[in-house]
Amino acid sequence: MSIQETIANQYHAVLKMLEQAIELCPEPLSLSASGASPNHSWHIAYHALFYTHFYLAPGESEFTPWPHHRPEYNFLGTVPWRPNEIHIAEIPYTQAELREYVEFCHGEVDRQTAVLDLDAPSGFHWLPFNKLELQFYNIRIPPTMPGSYPSAFAPRQISGCRGSADFR
Question: At what angle do helices 3-24 and 131-144 cross, to 10 degrees?
């Protein structure tokens, strides 16, 4: 197995984890804020999917958003170039839409990792490392975000979620 295939497998695992968490949480709960975070759970999921997808692109200028992307919905809280303004994502993404984005991201993983030059620069001027390190950076973001999956939906942590998830 090549390193690119190993990287793809890790992306697929984290995307499966996100998808399971989305499926296990009743939609009314996903539309509510999560714990101490003011962000709605669906929004945290969208943010995680967006940035997984974004950093899979060869670079910022080559990134093409998901066809159902809504401007600035990738941000949680303030938009970096308008720090005094809090962005409110008013129209939620449904569980079905989030699952559709998960599937889209699985396709992007296969497409982008197949042509990945691991020694090339990251492609993002604010990330001063190569593509290999970018993959490690990107894969670890969704499960470690404060208020993120699986913590936003883990059945053991929030009542109302059904079943249990295998996050391996």
Answer: 20
Instruction: Compute the distance between CA of residue 134 and CA of residue 27 in angstroms, rounded to an integer.
Output: 33
Count how many Cα atoms sit within 13 Å of the Cα of residue 147 in the half-sphere of its side chain: 18
Question: Are 17 and 143 contacting, i.e. CB atoms less than 8 angstroms apart?
Answer: yes
How far is it, in rounded angstroms, from Cα 146 to Cα 151?
Answer: 8
Is 141:48 a contact under the CB 8 Å cutoff?
yes
End-to-end CA distance of the chain: 20
- pLDDT confidence of 139, banded at 50, 70, 90? very high
Strands (E), the chain: 78-79, 82-86
**Cβ-count burial of 87 within 10 angstroms (0-12 exposed, 13-18 middle, 19+ buried)?**
middle
DSSP state of 127: S
Q: Name beta bridge partners: 86.
A: 78
Q: Which two tokens stand for residue 57?
A: 């692109």
Residue carrying the six token digits 């942590």: 157
27 compared with 69, residue with greater pLDDT: 69
Give the model's pLDDT for residue 144.
52
Could you tell me the pTM of the whole model? 0.83
